[in-house]
């Protein structure tokens, strides 16, 4: 089994632009620190089975929070966060 979760928790990073992108996509108005805290809690509470590597990205799907986090697998940098569309 992979250790994506541990690797991400230890090395996650952000760009200056991603904070605005996350606020826009989730329709929020959080500070950078609040976004980092929110994502850290989501990642910690998501089971490793919901971490999927496709190509260069890792997708973390947290259905209880209706959120999917996209992370670059090489840099462990957050790319974006999307709402999971309910079926």
Automatic annotation (TrEMBL):
<dbReference type="Pfam" id="PF12636">
    <property type="entry name" value="DUF3781"/>
</dbReference>
<protein>
    <submittedName>
        <fullName>DUF3781 domain-containing protein</fullName>
    </submittedName>
</protein>
<dbReference type="InterPro" id="IPR024229">
    <property type="entry name" value="DUF3781"/>
</dbReference>
